[in-house]
Each structure stands twice: as structure tokens, then as C-alpha cells.
Amino acid sequence: KIRSSKPDLNQTKKNVERRSTKTQAKRARALPVELQSKTSMSQWTCCGQIFTNTTGIHQHVSRTHSPEIQDLTTAALLQQQQPKMEEEEGGDVSSWIPDISHLSGEDLTRGTGEVLLFYCYCDLPNPQQISAWQRELCQRLRLTGKVRVATEGINGTVGGTRVSTGLYRRAMLAHPTFRCMQEDDFKRSEGGAHCFPELRVGVFEEIVPMGVDPALISYRRAGSHLEPEEFHEEVRALLSSRDTCGDTVLLDCRNFYESKIGQFSCCLAPDIRKFSYFPDYVDQNLELFRGKRVLMYCTGGVRCERGSAYLCSKEVCKEVYQLKGGIQKYLERFPDGFYRGKLFVFDERYAIASNADIISACRYCGASWDQYQLCSTRRCRQLVLSCPSCRRAGTTACCPTCQRKGSEVSGAWREECDCTATRPRIPRDV
Fold first, then answer.
1. Of 5-9, 124-128, 146-150, 175-179, where does mean pLDDT reach its minimum?
2. Which residues in the chain are classed under CATH 3.40.250.10?
3. What is the pTM of this model?
4. Second-level CATH architecture of 219-351
5. Positions marked catalytic
6. In whole angstroms, what is the distance from residue 274 CA to residue 262 CA?
7. Do residues 304 and 322 make contact, with C-beta atoms less than 8 angstroms apart?
8. For 21-66, how does the pLDDT look when each residue is reduced to its tens digit (9 = 90+)?
9. Spatial distance between the Cα atoms of 334 and 228, rounded to a whole number of angstroms
10. 4-17: pLDDT as tens digits
11. CATH 3.30.70.100 domain position(s) in the chain
12. Which SMART domains match (predicted)?
């Protein structure tokens, strides 16, 4: 039990390491390591090694299991604070901020980093208060990223050190409003605070911009969720049938530049620029889905919630399913599965990889290439695939029109280039 608001981490580590056999058995179920004391209190077995003195086991735990010990300590701190948070749920947002007085600035800014991707659909009667809490929480933990809050829930992606993101996850899970969330709802990938230029937190009408009032199309009407293993078997069956005109449609809910560098085999990938175009795409291509089983997927799952709800509202599909946790959770389970190429992400990394496949090509020479960069023309800033050879030759814009403009500043809006002028806003794929 932690008795001080500023616990001694070294003492906490020793207490954890020297628990009784019964308590250690509980830890063994929670941690990916075995750490159990023997009958004799002078011997410990861990990772296949036997230690006969406390110095040896302490050094081993410090070198090998430091992250687990930090996680246990953080969880204990937040558990201690949770009753206070629940009592003061309607009060000052500072009561929902975890105590980090035992951590230095370096603990929150140096070390291995990661990026979290998450969402939670739930009723938020006071989104402004949740937004204020999120802003304060992220600033205290030195996190950067983007967090959207609405009356329908929260959607965010943040980056920082593993210490900071660990505290953030536990603060979210301890908050009374988000008790429906689980640890597995956070998608984690390599990265850090450097993946985002700043922190942006705000209140919006929707947590993902589909352009349809949540009161009209609610997330509660979403399609059925499939675990990655179930989705994998569905795709396997679809590919085995080799019948592209069958009763199943594998639908990519993302934008064209996302599916361009990575997608599931045999999918329908709409050529749309924004998710807000998705409802119009469905309306203009209803015959594609009439009488069909639809398997939907997106990056982390949040777009499928409202997207599947919209498709279900049309009452033309036989069944509508969505990949739970999105592509990122699927790749954690099947890194070399049916998804090929890169996974586009909305931060400075642009993409993360789980396999070596390159399914896209350079805009100019056609060589295999899948690393996006921004168009070099000011006021355009669209993404372009230009290989190193072509970039050295000076072709760094997204299209010939922008290439001719160069770096001059004109009055034209960013949409006015060949990339959008030659692409229908809402493609018809029927």
C-alpha cells in the first residue's frame, strides 16, 4: 500500500519484488514474465535464473523489468487517487490529473516514446469540461497530438514518452466517464512527441468529421464488430472464393491517399479525398451494396462506427460488419496477413509498416515508392509520392500545375491543382 503522495519508487520496487508467493502468482497473470519467490525467502527464480541474495534479484529486476515495475507503481498511484476523482467528478479538472510530483521533467521528455491512437463513443453531457481536462492532462504529461471531444465521445492520437503515455492511459481508464474503455482500446506504435507539431484539443460536433449530425445517424446504429481473427477468416474466405461478384464486399472507409499505399487484397477503395465525402459516395453507389454482406475497415475503427451506421441506415445491405480496432489491431495480430503495404497515419510519420510490400509508385517515373512528402508548392500542401531520383531532379510537387507554380505565393486556394481538378468529388463505381 502506498502511504505517501510522493512515494519512494525504490522502496516500491523492493516491496513489489518481495511479495508473498500468493501475490506473486497474481502478478504472473498480469505480466509477461515469471517472478515467483521460492519457499526459502533467500532464493528467487526469475527468467529461468536463480538468485540467492536481494542484491542480485534487485539488479536483475532493475535491468530487465523496469517498465513493468513502473507500470505497477503508476497503476497503484492512480488507484489510490480514484476515489477522490469520483467524488469530485463535477468539480475542478485538476482533481482528475494524476500526481506526477515524483517524476522529473526528464522522465516525461526523455526515453523511449510511442504514439497512442484511441476513441470512445459515449454520451458526454459536458464536452467542454472533458476538453479542458484533456488539455491540462496532456500539457502536464508533455504530450503532443490531436484530441477531438464531442457530446458523442472522444477521439484522439497523442505522442510522448512511454512514461507519459502510460500515465495518460491509466488516467483515462480511471476516469468515471470512460470506465467502458479497456487497455486494449489504445492502439500503440513507435513514435513520440516529435510526431506532432503541437497539441490541439477542442470541442466539435463529431469526433470524426463525417458531416452528418450525430443526432440523425448515431454510432449506436453501427454494424457488428469482428475481432481481427474473425475478420481475417472472412477475408480468407472471400479470397478463396475468387468471386469478385459474390455476395460480399470488402470496403475500405479511408481516403484515396491512405488506401493508395496500403490495403486489403480484393477491397473496394473509394477514390475520395475526405471522410465527409463518404455518405455521398454511399448514396451514389447504393447498388454496389444492395443485398450484399459488407466488411468495413479503417485505420483504428472510429470511422467505421459512423460509416457503418450510415450504410445500415440505407437498409440495402444483407449484413454490415466492421473490423474491431481497425487495421492497426489487425496488424498486431497478423503482421504478414492479408493487408499489404503501409498503414497511413495522420502525423509526421505519414505511415507505419508491418511488411515490406510496396504497392504504390512514384508520381513521375512509376518506380515503386510509398513514402509521402508534402507538395512543395505553397498553399497546396497535398501529399505526393516522388522517389529520391525524381526529387533530386526537382519534381517535388503533387502535379505538373503545382510544379510550374514553384514556390511563388499566389491567390489560388490549395484545392486548385490537377490532383483535384481531374478527380470527381464523388466517384461512381457502380
1. 5-9
2. 219-351
3. 0.76
4. 3-Layer(aba) Sandwich (3.40)
5. 298
6. 17
7. yes
8. 444 444 433 434 444 444 445 687 888 788 787 777 777 877 777 6
9. 8
10. 334 444 444 444 34
11. 72-203
12. RHOD
